[in-house]
Amino acid sequence: MKEIEGDIWDYHEEKRWIAITTNGSLKNDESLVMGKGVALQAAQKFPALPKLLGTYLKDYGNHVLPLMQYKIITFPVKHHWNQRADMQLIMRSCIELAYICDLQRYYMFKEAGKVYLVRPGCGAGGLDWADVKPLCEKYLDNRFVVVESSL
C-alpha cells in the first residue's frame, strides 16, 4: 500500500478506480446517507448514486461494492452515519476490497492499475490514521494507494 497527498478525484478523472467511504444508513426515501467527505463529493458528482447505493444496501447489506459504471467502489467504515468509524468494519472492508479486486483483476486493473482511497474512518469517522494504517497495511497490497487530502 502506497500513500500520497492530493485530491482523489484527480485520479478518478484519469479513469482510475476510487473507493469511497460509506455507512449503513438510509434516509426516509431509502437513499444512502452520503453527507460528508468523499461520499458527499461522490453524491454531488453523481446525483443518482445515493438512491442506487440505498438499493444495494437493502439488498446486500453494508459491504464493499464495485460500481463498474462509475469506477467507484464503496468502502463501509460505519454502521450508522452518526457513529464513530468501526475498526472491525474497516478490517472487513479491507478484506472484501482485496478479494473483489482479486476476482475482478482483469477488468479493474487492465487500464488503471491501482485503486485509490482516502484514509478510511479518519475524517468524519473520527479515527486516527496512526491506528488505522497498520490494519490497512495488513490487507491492502501495492494495488492500493491511500490519498491524503491536500486541501
Short description:
With 151 residues, the protein is an alpha/beta fold.
Present the secondary structure layout.
Elements: E1 2-6, H1 8-13, E2 17-22, H2 37-45, H3 49-60, E3 65-67, E4 72-76, H4 87-103, H5 105-109, E5 115-117, H6 129-139, E6 144-149
Parallel strand pairs: 1-6, 2-4, 2-5, 5-6
Antiparallel strand pairs: 3-4
What's the number of helices?
Answer: 6
What number of domains? 1
Helix content: 25-40%
**Mean of residue pLDDT values:** 92
The shape is: globular
Summarize the structure in words.
The chain is an alpha/beta fold. It has one domain: Leucine Aminopeptidase, subunit E, domain 1, CATH 3.40.220.10. Helices cover 40% and strands 19% of the residues. The chain has 6 helices and 6 strands, in the order βαβααββααβαβ. A 6-stranded mixed beta sheet has the order 1-6-5-2-4-3, with helices on both faces. Helix 4 packs parallel to helix 6. The longest helix has 17 residues. The radius of gyration is 14 Å and the shape is globular. The two termini are 22 Å apart. The mean pLDDT is 92.
Protein traits:
151 residues, alpha/beta, Leucine Aminopeptidase, subunit E, domain 1, 6-stranded mixed β-sheet, 6 helices, 6 strands, 40% helix
